[in-house]
Amino acid sequence: MLKKQFKRAFGVLVLGLIPLALSVLTAGTAQAHGYTQNPTSRAYFCKLGTATNCGSIQWEPQSVEGPKGFPNSGPADGKLCSAGVGSFAPLDDPRNGTWPTTKLTSGAGYTFTWTLTAPHATSSFRYYITKNGWNPSAPLTRAQLETTPFLTVNMNGQRPGYTVSHPGTLPAGKSGRHLIFSVWDIADTGNAFYQCADVTF
């Protein structure tokens, strides 16, 4: 009798653990999304080891995810590069303007590239740039960015591939160090992905 009760209790326990195990596995894969390679983002420089002392972002540059709605909502000023994720706070540290940069030519054509580890139905990709005279030694805020994105790619809910390329034109009249802030708006969730790329014109 005891043996039967033990078997039944064990069976119930195993059946109860299966959904939990599946939810853990699903949550793990759901955290994989995307990052910018061209221009190279802070997150990707951390993955490559070019930038050090990055914390956990070095293992998951694709996971910089936060509430969408930028610029009216979304991550708070000073936390834009980390999307407000506490463990990714090293991305918000301006490092006194010493992050590695990608060299670009103002006003030239350029192809922006994302690597997606889990593509999502997408509203748009948008690219912003810092204003002339911005302070590269301070955490990024909305006031430091041009109000309008210089490139917007509307997707209307389509799901992109694992490598996404967006040909565009870089803003004219830029020189020296700047930052390109990329926003990937997801169509079927309340979130977006954010990437900060330091560049030199």
UniProtKB/TrEMBL annotation:
Primary localization class, coarse: secreted
Entry GO CC: extracellular region
Pfam families in alphabetical order: LPMO_10
Record keywords: Secreted, Signal
Signal peptide: 1-32
Domain Chitin-binding type-4: 33-199
Protein name: Chitin-binding protein
